[in-house]
Amino acid sequence: MRSCKELREAKSVYWRGKRRDNNDLTADDLALLGTLGSVLPSLESLSLYVTAAGPDGVQRLAVGLGAGALLAVTKVDLYGMHVGDAGASALAAALDRGALPRLESLGLNNTTISDAGLVALAPILRRRPALEELYLWDTPFGDEGLAALLAPPPPAGAQPPPTGVLTKLELLSLNTTEVTDAGCANLAAALDSGLLPALEELALVGIPPACRQRRGESRRVPV
Question: Mean pLDDT over residues 195-205, rounded?
Fold first, then answer.
């Protein structure tokens, strides 16, 4: 960006780095970007790919995002970065403070988030009724993380889930995660109970074949 005016009017920030590139973004850069979140009123898309910002870069980015930060952003895509459980927890805290209020698409592919990180992030995502796409492929969480995202299906005869729980989610990518057959059984039960009513595409490549079979028996959501 050549000027502050150009930055304020930007609708998209896209950075594709290299792990060994000396000119790549640093953790300090991401921390600065976080503090600028409230003065980027036009920004709609933030995509950061394979950037060598160190183990705490995403965490520092999220810490700087306060209420109303990145107000117009609908898409965030972090690919190949070290988010980890600490970064996922920091992102959850930022969303809970009111950052990214219009988020529709979140990509956390190949971001080293385990069950603990998704357990921290999932309740906040479930409270985001505008969320339409969630990409979590090539990320090492398993059944516990998936269960936290879905929330347990209600017992027989109980009231249905409260309105606003991922009711607009159309795409969920779980490719090459560590979800097992048990997690797939919970997923099938969740679909049968009426959770994720808008789901149109469920990506399950690279996890047990029985998962795809259960998916097919459940609601015929295409893989």
Answer: 92
